[in-house]
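Annex B. Sample input.
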Amino acid sequence: MSAKGEKEKNVENTLKLEIEEQPEENNNEVKVSDDDERCESKMGFGSKDEWCGTIVKYSMFLSNFIIFIGGIVLVAISVYTLYDKSFIKELLGTNLFTGAVYILIVAGILLSLLSFLGCAGAVKEVKCMLLTYFIILFIIFIVMLVGGILCYVFRQRVQTTMQQEMLRTIRFYGDDRAITRAWDDLQEGLHCCGVTGYDDWRQHRIGGIIPSSCCQEINGKKQPCNLSFQASLQIYNTGCLNVTTAFMKDHATTVGTVGIAVSLFLLFGLAFSCALFMMIV
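Annex B, continued. Sample output.
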């Protein structure tokens, strides 16, 4: 075979090899482009998982903001209830209401602080923080629910326990400083006298003289009503039991309702933190 023939044959073989290699290169290009598209579909803003995660994250921010506000409101109302007419505590006959209020105050403070942990866990997407947030929030949920229910339990029992305690402590008026001050503050603050009326002082107190705190105040001066038990316009004719019972029932209802309402909002925080925890790889 001549040199010219061999050269033509080599050229033909080279062309064949180039034709055979082109499809493989095209296939590789197609594979690379497919991989890029998959990566883009997984990480791009239009992916379903990312949109879902974003919605859950911002929902958790919103729920934690509401929980933070709820915790502050709960603490404010509980503290106000605890110190408004605090003298009544001496005549309640039970620590149920006071204990429930203290529980809700502590829970409200912890709740306000915990909301920042929930937001931090959502921003950084740290599973450990979200798990800690979920556990503590669940414990606070149980505590607040119990505290709110205790307020309603106290509301049903307040009249009976207070009546017994009033009849017991009225005998020690003048002898016990704390009881004396409690009765004076109660009668002056709520404009009442005795348990069911001013006649209780004659029945249960030696000497038959009503306290000066039962006397009405006119133009800034106490009227001389403590000389006898004659009913007059100068004596508060309303008994303290009904007035105080209504006062305490209103406070117990307010604190209990706020406590239970805030505890129900915690369910949203629990749900969103659990959902975000499951989404983080």
